[in-house]
Specification:
Shape: flat
Strand order of the largest sheet: 1-2-3-4
Distance between the termini: 67 Å
Number of strands: 4
Largest sheet: 4 strands, antiparallel
Structural class: alpha+beta
Number of domains: 2
Helix content: 40-55%
Number of helices: 2
Order of helices and strands: HEEEEH
Radius of gyration: 28 Å
Length: 126
Amino acid sequence: MVILGLLTSGLESAAQFLTVLLVFILVLILTYFTTRWVGKFQKLQSNNKNFEVIETCKLTSNKYLQIVRAGKKYLVIAVGKDSVTMLTELAKEDIDLTPAGPAAQDNFQKIFEKAKDKIQRRGDHL
C-alpha cells in the first residue's frame, strides 16, 4: 500500500513538472513569434522617405544633438528628456554624408584575413 502511494506521488510530481515545462516552452515560443511580429511591424512603420536621422551626438545621459533630414532640409536639433528644439538649418554642402562604416569594416576584414592566414599556416605545420 505504501509503495503504491509513493508511486502515485512520483507520477503526480512528474506530471506537474512536465506540465510546467510545457507551459514554459509555450511561453518562450509565443514570446519569440511576438517579438518577430513587433519587429516587422516597427520596420514597416519606420519606412520614411522624408525623414532621416543623419547623425547623433550624445551630450549628457539624456541630451543629444542630432542632424536630421526633413524633406530636402537638414536641421540640427537638440533632444532632451521632455523637449526637442530646433537649433539651426544646415546646407547640404556643410554636411559630410560619407558613411563611417566601411572604413571600420575594411579594418575588421584585414584583421580577419590575417588571423585566418595564421590559423592556416599553423595547420600546415601540423
